Records
---
Amino acid sequence: MSPDPTDPRDAHWEDGLKRWAATPAPPAPVDFAARLGLESPYRPARWWAPAIAASAAAAFGLFHLLGPAPVPLAESPAPDPILAYFGADPWSLEGP
Amino acid sequence: MSPFGPRRRRAVSWDEPALERAVAGDARAQARLVRAHQDAVYGLLYRLASPEEALAADLTQETFVKALGALPRFHGGAEAVKPWLLKIAHRTFLDHARKKQTASLDALQEEQGFDPPAPTPAGEALDLDAVGAAMAALPPTWRQAIWLRHVEDAPYEAIAEHLAVPLGTVKTWIHRGRAAMRAALLTETEVSP
């Protein structure tokens, strides 16, 4: 080991330096493995998860394509007063 | 960064079988190597590059690029990986410091001396922020030598070998670094005759 002449005045800052170095440093700000292209930071999804998601989306889409279009309440036709009086067949001679 | 503070990651285990796979070129094992040691490497470079956090991150990435390139020639055990990575981190920092000094005022500062900040008032405990500021004010090469000698307690010869620089250069950096730290962190009683 080399001779290391110590100055008594160094003890003051040496102690402070060691305490400063011992304070915890923040963790790495990014995942360097992902940044280097070694592996995605996200776990691969289960193989069946995309299949279930696609099936659900397809069923939802089919329902909206093939199902009855909903009629807004505000646009519903008012009941016909003639039909309401004579029943379903207004030309019937039987009357209401 | 998360608004709730630094994100905590699960500790990654690191062992001999993982090292063997990483040396053999398994990308998942290499990712494990990086994740198991990235906090230690970044922590060192964060101190050395303080207060430049972005620089610390860039140098951490450069360290791992170099390490993964040299991994097929690594012959130590799993415990030897961390010291090996920290050595690469030190050399990466020194390479950066040298490049920077050729084109900045650092070289001038190194030649002409160091401009110390105001002394610490007598009787007050040394403020750790002041220590960090004093370290940050040092030229990078002095800062690194002071770190190795006074934080890691490395002997001069080991520092010279670690940084791949002549022994005389290491002694000069440490001598100047000490004088600068002493001047920066003097108390008022030490300033007055």
---
Amino acid sequence: MSKVLVVDDAGFMRMMIKDILNKNGFEVVGEAENGHKAIEKFQELRPDIVTMDITMPELDGIAAVKAIKQIDPAARILMCSAMGQQAMVIDAIQAGAKDFIVKPFKPERVLEAVSKALAS
Amino acid sequence: MDVKYINPFLLATSDIVNQVLGVAPVFEKPFIKTTPYSNAEELLVIIGVTGEMNGKVLINIGKESCINIASQMMGGMPVEFNELSKSAVSELCNMILGTSATHFASQGMSVNITSPTVLEGHNITVSQKEQVICIPINVGNEIKITVNISTERKAA
């Protein structure tokens, strides 16, 4: 079962993403509410994939992606943000994210993106 | 404030409320609020706007509306007024502001937002120096949202 780390500052959003993944054969092994915690949890848990919010306190998601890619260049990270403008998507992809999901999302979109990223 | 700087917020609200709550919001006529002003409802979600638009948006939502929004966002599940339902409302506001930023980007303006802060209390009074444009919004009969916008185009 693929292990997922869910990163979002909103407890509600973490719960929704966890629920979608847990119900569809993925194992959410950890959660983090800011970029610093995400880096710590990534090192500790070594998940197969990370879902990453962008707008977060302390350290934003794009900075966290860069730090995680330095730890593990093969890390698979999916951005999951309410900020859908092109410049933000480009920043995220350049930082090393595999895909970009704009909130609000449908469960199928998350599952499709996770499966695709895991297959790559 | 130029209407073209208010429209992205209205478009985003309409878009997100439709998608997330499944009902088209009804906007009341926007008006300029004098400060200090007090908020009739218990929750105040504050989101900062940075970049080529600068300022903040304060969204006032009551407990009942909060419960109704959270329940709708969880597929109709019964919910209580607690940290989780407040988080759901704060996320709804985050999506509205995030989508507003995307609309500003399509007008060629680079705008970012801060993560939301939620205040809870009775008659929270807000004092601020900027002009406030207030837009009351009704979503069906059970959800009422008051959006207070105080953002300015940053001088180039």
